[in-house]
Design goal:
This protein is mainly beta. The protein has three domains: 86 residues, Carboxypeptidase-like, regulatory domain (Immunoglobulin-like); 85 residues, Carboxypeptidase-like, regulatory domain (Immunoglobulin-like), CATH 2.60.40; 83 residues, Immunoglobulin-like (Sandwich). Strands 2, 3, 5, 6 and 7 form a five-stranded antiparallel beta sheet that branches.
């Protein structure tokens, strides 16, 4: 019986000797020396065996169940630069290779930049409230609106070179004339805009009647053509028409309907911003079929 117990003890000791090994150490902040909790430590062996473990509140880790061999060990954690242990780490069966420590360097946080300026009305010199200012770089975009004083601030800009533009309702949008470089932590001021108000549109109105009977003609298409484009309207049952949203300028106006000869107003028709040019009237002549 005594011999049997001795044999069991010998076999148990042999089993412990054959157990796999491990790697242990600590991960700390390279600047402060404080432990880094939750860091991931990975050991990769020559035979591609991989073991991993996370550090505890004291920055300590233990990777277990590693076969004998040599391992490359690395550590990484959010907010830190990853690190690789400078030499291969040997592991033997039944042993823990200790003091495989890491000092992780915190990542350098890039301080954002700022662009500031104002947006003004070119005609009145007054600030424009609610204008949108947009800054665009190669892979980043930021926008802001102006306040009651026409001021804007574009914050949290990554370092880089930006194209900046401004736009507002009833104004012609404008690009800043040159690229705006922004360095880390820098505030770039006086990126100002002076927006030109969009010209107010006008209108053309009048009446179309039959040249012989002077009765109104419905459904006549009246077309205004000018350097800024073309617009048209159709007469109602009383022969009246009104071409709206016409850009300021000078126009040739023509009236046409099937069964009538087209007619062009005898002189150019001017359109002023915010005004309706009235009494652009037409007398249309019916087209008569030739008698047999």
């Amino acid at each position: 019986m005594k011999k049997l117990l001795i044999l069991v003890a010998v076999l148990a000791m042999a089993g412990m000797a054959l157990a796999d090994g491990g790697i242990a150490g600590q991960v700390v902040n390279a600047q402060t020396g404080d432990p880094v909790e939750g860091a991931m430590v990975v050991a990769k062996g020559d035979s591609n065996q991989i073991g991993r473990a996370r550090t505890n509140a004291r920055g300590v880790y233990l990777i277990e169940d590693l076969e004998s061999g040599r391992y490359r060990v690395s550590a990484q954690s959010r907010g830190y630069e990853p690190a690789i242990y400078p030499s291969a780490v040997g592991v033997r069966q039944g042993q823990i290779t200790r003091n495989i420590n890491f000092r992780l360097k915190p990542k350098q946080q890039t301080e954002p930049g700022v662009i500031k300026g104002r947006v003004m009305d070119r005609r009145t010199g007054e600030p424009i409230k609610g204008a949108v200012v947009v800054a665009v770089s190669e892979n980043f975009r930021r926008r802001a609106r102006t306040d009651d004083h026409g001021r804007y601030v574009l914050r949290k800009l990554k370092p880089g070179v930006y194209r900046v533009k401004a736009k507002a309702r009833h104004y012609i949008k404008e690009n800043f004339p040159r690229p705006v470089p922004v360095r880390a932590g820098q505030t770039v001021e006086h990126i100002n805009f002076v927006l030109q108000p969009k010209p107010r549109k006008g209108a053309i109105g009048g009446r179309v009647v039959d040249a012989r009977t002077h009765r109104p003609i419905a459904g006549v298409k009246v077309i205004a053509r000018g350097e800024h484009g073309m617009s048209h309207a159709v007469t109602d049952r009383h022969g009246f028409y009104r071409i709206t949203k016409v850009n300021p300028g000078v126009y040739r106006v023509t009236a046409m309907k099937r069964g009538y000869r087209p007619a062009t107003f005898p002189r150019p028709v001017p359109v002023r911003p915010g005004h309706a040019t009235k009494h652009i009237n037409f007398l249309l002549h019916k087209v008569r079929a030739d008698a047999d």
